[in-house]
Amino acid sequence: MIASTVRKPLFGVTLLTFSLFLLLFFFTPFPFFSDPSVTFNSSRRVRPEIWSIRRLAEWRPCNWWLQPRTNALPAQANGYIRVDCYGGLNQMRRDLCDGVGIARLLNATLVLPKFEVAAYWNESSGFEDVFDVDFFIQQMKGFVNVVKELPIEIASKDPVRVDCSKRKGQFDYVESVLPSLLKHGYISITPAMSQRRDRYPLYAKAALCQACYSALRLTNTLEKKALELLQAIPKPFLSLHLRFEPDMVAYSQCEYSGISLASAKAIEAARVDRKPWTGETARIWRNRGKCPLTPNETAFILKALAIPTNTTIYLAAGDGLMELEGLTSVYTNVVTKSSLLSGEDFTTMHGNTKAALDYYVSINSDSYMATYFGNMDKMVAAMRAFTGLYKTIFLNRKAFALFTSQGFKGKELTEALWKVHRDDFIMGRGSALPDCFCEFNL
Question: Which range is the signal sequence, renumbered to this chain (predicted)?
Answer without folding.
Answer: none
